[in-house]
Amino acid sequence: EKQIVVALAGNPNSGKTTIFNSLTGAHQHVGNWPGVTVEKKEGQLVSEGKVIRVVDLPGTYSLGAYSEDEAVARDYILFEKPDVVINIIDATNLERNLYLTTQLLEMGSNLVIALNMSDELKAKQIDINAARFSELLGVPAIRTVGTRGQGTKELVAQALQAAGNKNPRVVQINYGKEVETELAALEQDILSNRQLVENFAPRWLAVKVLEGDQGVLKSLAKYPGLERLLARRAEAVKRLEGLLGEDIESLLADKRYGFIGGLAKEVMTRRQTTEERLS
Ligand code: GDP
Ligand code: MG
Ligand code: K
Description:
It is found in: Cell inner membrane; Cell membrane. Residues 3-165 form the FeoB-type G domain. By secondary structure, the chain is of the alpha/beta class. It has helices at 16-24, 68-80, 94-106, 118-123, 130-137, 152-163, 177-191, 194-199, 202-211, 214-220, 226-244, 248-267, 274-278, and strands at 4-10, 28-32, 39-47, 50-56, 84-90, 111-116, 126-128, 141-143, 268-270. Helices cover 51% and strands 18% of the residues. Strand 3 (39-47) and strand 4 (50-56) form a beta hairpin. The termini are far apart. Guanosine-5'-diphosphate (GDP) binds next to helix 1 and helix 4.
């Protein structure tokens, strides 16, 4: 039987390596990603009779083109297509960590989320509603304490379940009427390009093209039909920037932060201290 590949993605210091160690124990191998000096850690475990290969991706805040780490993580997810991506989130910095999560969601990754550092969150008198979080994003979310191995069994169980899901739900951030109109047109173009459709989630690619993500555009250079897509993009950007008076990158970023802010607000509650309750 084919082994299942699970990649761990998350911000630096979210607890990725701690959870990686907890999952794989001594069965680890350290090397380098091809062509770059970024360290590559792999390990494996056996669960429910299945061999799971775990890959610890470089810690990143985003999957843009700004660093070698980001390019390694993004290209691995795009081109190696792990069966499941476990996104390790430092729940004490939820909003900052969710920026990466929104990108993983848009990429159409088969996601399982670890709300890690949940012990620290508790110490700060903050509750996070994992069930509601999971419901809003359409992906499993488990509270974990990496340093104590808490929640890791459940993570593996959810990852195994997700691995069998061939059509993961793709959450769509709504970028507003004007932007959505242009995205739909770009997506149509992408859908008519068989090679692009076979390799990428069309919606994700439409967003990246509109955004002008240099890393992604570079990865696409070999695909026929790219020039037409870029010409459409140039027209769309001109229209949107004229219409909305803001540059396209800021337009998209604002919507993402709006989505993240709304989500965080909905799932987090600060418990009242005894003093507050009595006053
Ligand atoms: P990475 O950069 O994502 O690989 O993060 P690490 O695994 O190196 O963890 C960063 C720091 O957070 C280390 O000091 C860990 O011991 C600590 N850590 C990891 N998970 C938890 C957790 O759930 N709770 C607490 N309190 N600390 C954690
Ligand atoms: Mg690490
Ligand atoms: K570390």
